[in-house]
Amino acid sequence: MIINRSVLVISFLIFIGSLTSSCNKDKPVFESDWHAQPDRIWVGPDMWANRLQDWRIEDGKLQCINADLGLRTVHLLTYQVGEASGEVSIEVLVGLNPDARRNGTDGWAGILIGAGEDQLEYRASALIHSASGKTGGIIAVMNEFGQVVFFDNTNNKETFGSMPVMPEVEIPDSVIMKINIYPGEDSLYTIEASAVHPESGDIISSNTLTKLKAKRVMGNIAIAVNHIEKDLSSHSYWFGNLKVSGTKISSNPTHRFGPVLGVQYTLSKDILKMTAQLPPIGDDDDQFVKLWIKGKQENVWKLADSITIIKGSYTVPFRIENWESNGNFDYRLTYRLNDVKGRKRTYFYTGSIAADPIHKNELVVGAFTGMSHSHGSIAKGNFDYTSRLWFPHAEFIKSVAGQKPDILFFTG
């Protein structure tokens, strides 16, 4: 569906740090390519959506499709605001679905900054959504009435700073929202935000936050949406052309998650069974995954099989008979993401397959049960992300890996 009426387009331009260099503003470190992606639920390997089912790529845009729940987020995984001094620039287009009425039901869309406040690991920070709480960040948005506002996501999403007056002009179908964030001589940060008419350049609304500690802008960057109306059955806001750059940005390409999300395998009686898990891909994406194998001392990868992805579960079951069970091997799964222009990019997922421990007198088993990500639900009220969020279980994983288990056994 192409949205061609009642579209609210917002461009967020965020500068974090001292504005001493302009070259990074013109060369984005990260730029989304949703406009070139086929329709699918999964939003891509550089981002994590909360929740997965609340977002999708459709008509070349990132669409929020769940208007019943508050504060839906999509976190950027591969770039964070780090400790280094400097600048950050963020720009994103935002549109409002024409069926979503501006009727005073707390609708807004924009950017969440400082998620995790550099106290949480990036994957833990990427779960910040719905509930506010400690290290929840600052939300910078334009609301349905055209006011530029800030919300403190560490404190029940209370209005942060002053509430600007209602714009005296009619809100245009498109606006540019610009945000400048910079430190003063006291090393405390100021955020200046304004919504600008894209043609006349007139300021529709503006707002300012001052005296912010540096940690408040450090951590994850995320797209943020609050419901425009709770009973809306169609999409609420959509986003496009997200750009992130600056000398205060840390780049971490190893943080990508997907297209292959994880792998489990078993080895028994010279038969290797391996299952790969993918996210919900689209009908126009590649529908198969390739498995490559090589010995530990070998340099050449050999194609073992190419298997079609099972629709619905998005799993890929490999079965290799006559496996050399006494050997140790490396494996590599390859999957190509295609865009609407026919360009293809190959992604890799690698791991090792150990020899079958049939000659060992004692096997080491790692047993798992009741693996919860958090103490209580994130979905409601106030949530302390620093103490109640257990994901990604870093200490637990390190402990298990240190035991060098032969078998991993999951019971629920």
Walk me through what this model shows:
5% of the residues lie in helices and 41% in strands. The protein is mainly β and 412 residues long. The strands form 6 sheets. Strands 1, 2, 4, 5, 8, 13, 14, 15 and 17 form a 9-stranded mixed sheet that branches. A 7-stranded antiparallel sheet has the order 3-6-16-9-10-11-12. A 4-stranded antiparallel sheet has the order 22-21-24-25, with no helix packed on it. Strand 19 (262-268) and strand 20 (271-277) form a beta hairpin. It is elongated, with a radius of gyration of 24 Å. The two termini are 40 Å apart. Residues 1-27 have low confidence and may be disordered.
Secondary structure elements and pairings:
Blueprint: E1 10-15, H1 23-26, E2 30-31, E3 47-50, E4 55-58, E5 61-64, E6 72-76, E7 79-81, E8 89-96, E9 108-116, H2 122-125, E10 138-143, E11 148-152, E12 158-159, E13 176-183, E14 189-196, E15 203-212, E16 219-226, E17 237-245, E18 249-251, E19 262-268, E20 271-277, E21 288-295, E22 302-308, E23 315-321, E24 329-338, E25 344-353, E26 365-368, H3 385-388, H4 394-402, E27 407-410
Query: Ranges with pLDDT <50 over ≥5 residues?
Result: 1-27
Cα-based radius of gyration, to the nearest Å: 24 Å
Assign the structural class, choosing from mainly alpha, mainly beta, alpha/beta, alpha+beta, or little secondary structure. mainly beta
Mean pLDDT across all amino acids = 87
Task: Count the beta strands.
Answer: 27
**Count of alpha/pi helices:** 4
Main sheet specs: 9 strands, mixed
